[in-house]
């Protein structure tokens, strides 16, 4: 019944999206050949890949690529609606380790294992094991990673030196709050820290959930009783909201990954806690004014051994795709070992998709360019184990998300409440009381099933 409710919601959303966008179906005929329609999230790494797509077209005459590139929240909704209804709108889609095992179980995705086996030199064993496993279902990969990430903290070494502060390799959140208070310089336009406040289950809830975990909080107990008004969850939420409101960026309630990246890269924040993939942008002199000035340390903790998340943006082929063979050729091109050199030649080694293939970290040029963050990235991904980031058992999978279909809606609702608290529109207690009601409705459906 839960899956039926989810599918009905997806059908309605998909119908609305089609009416609004009028997109052509996948595998459509272009001028002089086939057109593959690829749905992607608009972020710096995918923008770089999109700019290189002419190389794929040149190597595959008669095949054109059409990218549907949207901000994260919009992309999630559109891709989910399309794939859930098997509408055949896309030949390939960008999804994550949240969707992949669920959608594979639903029969919505093409099993990629036969394609991997038939592609000489692709070498799926080269993927970082935790990333590969997170994109697998019943022993087969249903998506291949474009880049992988955990989370860590970037900090301005020059500002710390000037203030006489020393960042530990494994800081606590209280230490980070103290540093933020000392480095916050509103007159100079420098926030003590940048943290996501933008609504979205993949936006502000990603960093916040890691804070909640290490504070000892959980979304549900073992019997699916919602825990969003528990002392631990409240303490985590109050800490996160207070830290942003007191020492965070201007307009934090509408700031997500991209906005924090811009602010940090323009020297407007002393620290930034977010995805490890941020480092490539931070260290790119063409887009960052602070390149070479940052240090990177493990995700801050309170009660747990670690607190970083595990996430991968990956590419999959919907079961309804009409041109699976050419779609796989595109996936192979974007995720094989050679692609990192293609990116490096065009945009430099700091632009290479990180956290994906072990072989990338053995390339001397990459080791040199990524010296500040390569090892912290690998260590963060390796340490992102659910057993190390929680204090008590939970009935769901996922670190920075709850691995159930309903979380797309539940997480979005809770993220909106959290964002409103960050904006000062409601109190943390008010946000959590409403969020508890949303979560309990979902928990009840699991307990009685």
UniProtKB/TrEMBL annotation:
<dbReference type="Pfam" id="PF01547">
    <property type="entry name" value="SBP_bac_1"/>
</dbReference>
<dbReference type="InterPro" id="IPR006059">
    <property type="entry name" value="SBP"/>
</dbReference>
<feature type="signal peptide">
    <location>
        <begin position="1"/>
        <end position="26"/>
    </location>
</feature>
<keyword id="KW-0732">Signal</keyword>
<protein>
    <submittedName>
        <fullName>Sugar ABC transporter substrate-binding protein</fullName>
    </submittedName>
</protein>
<dbReference type="InterPro" id="IPR050490">
    <property type="entry name" value="Bact_solute-bd_prot1"/>
</dbReference>
